[in-house]
UniProtKB/TrEMBL annotation:
<dbReference type="Pfam" id="PF12846">
    <property type="entry name" value="AAA_10"/>
</dbReference>
<dbReference type="InterPro" id="IPR051162">
    <property type="entry name" value="T4SS_component"/>
</dbReference>
<keyword id="KW-0547">Nucleotide-binding</keyword>
<protein>
    <submittedName>
        <fullName>ATP-binding protein</fullName>
    </submittedName>
</protein>
<dbReference type="GO" id="GO:0005524">
    <property type="term" value="F:ATP binding"/>
</dbReference>
<keyword id="KW-0808">Transferase</keyword>
<dbReference type="GO" id="GO:0016740">
    <property type="term" value="F:transferase activity"/>
</dbReference>
<dbReference type="InterPro" id="IPR027417">
    <property type="entry name" value="P-loop_NTPase"/>
</dbReference>
<keyword id="KW-0067">ATP-binding</keyword>
Amino acid sequence: MRDPLSVLTEAFTSFLFGKVETTRLPVRTSTGQAQAVYLPTAAPGLGDSGVIIGREVYSGKGYIYDPFQLYGQQLPAPHWLVLGESGNGKSALEKTYVLRQLRFRDRQVVVLDAQGEDGVGEWNLIAQELGITPIRLDPMVANDAGIRLNPLDPSITTTGQLALLRTIIEVAMGHGLDERSGFALKVAHAHVNEHITDRQPILTDIVERLRHPEPESAEAMNVDRDDVRAWGLDVALVLDRLVDGDLRGMFDGPTTVGIDLDAPLIVFDLSHIDRNSIAMPILMAIVGVWLEHTWIRPDRKKRIFLVEEAWHIINSPFVAQLFQRLLKFGRRLGLSFVAVVHHLSDVVDGAAAKEAAAILKMASTRTIYAQKADEARNTGRVLGLPRWAVEIIPTLTPGIAVWDVNGNVQVVKHLITEKERPLVYTDRAMTESSGPPTDPELEWETEQRAILIEQQMNDSSQSTVA
């Protein structure tokens, strides 16, 4: 029986302050049972506008990403770096991303397709599905049948033409032009542009003028004409490779008529070019500058420039400098540059370390697929990833990647619809099926989420992202 004084004190306290909180006895339980007390939590997403990528692994939430929607708010730059060893899902991600972006009417994509299978580039199936013919650059094709891009196309400014010619020569020679060689190239280019007006000037015209300089060019510098010829000899030999050497047929004539720069998808098929030869960075430079002056326009379209084997760009100081300018210029006109690289060490330890660092700094979005532990630590150090992300990169399974969107780091599983599946898997030569093995326990869940993605994508095709 309670003490009468305690009862009286409690009644008086309740009258003054209201009913007091009841005292409950403590409950003993296990951590397994007590976890139900805590509400589930998850990192914030990137918004609900844009392209569906898949789902965030730890929370199961849908993961949506669009650099054009995030630019200026959560992203300082719309450029994107994709890293990871072969066979982990980089290619599937790129292709589904492009297919989903193209459902919006104000999107346009250019792909430099450097990988091949069955004699064609790996983007060939997607191009066929969209009714597009890839621009296949192939030095082995007969001159009359090949596609040409003219570095002296009148749509490129004279300043841009000269910069492009210098880059081609510097990439091929492996060092910068000295003042005398640069002067010989400049006067030859100026003479060709001034005197050839009835057609497109071509590289043959430059080579011919370097071999036979005009007397006026020598007189302007108060030197002998033979000196100017000697200064331009090495330059002429390099350019001759594009005219009559192993790179002939691609850049030694007027730009091919009929290249549709208004198509939603433009694929440059480089799969017939030796990826380890000097030809690849030269091609990257020419295509990059040609697109800068002919494709990027102030028409309010959002453009995506996706480059496979992008280390050919980032690992060459001269090509990297050109693309740095393109990236800075492109932000003002709505360009998102997507660089796909296997290993970060391919570029940060190369000859263009300074230029590579500048380009990597512009990439505010980084997607990292599985890498070996040493490579993961190096990647984490260069990109400034949190420790937990670095530790899980070697354990990631195909299709799952660490996404770092300007410091918002999440682990994302990429999901693919049944319609996309036959278009995006390109390892048929190594596997019996058209896709990776599926975990039976997750198969139903993945299919249901993929159906949801497809429904949402169909809905989004009816409207344009603001």
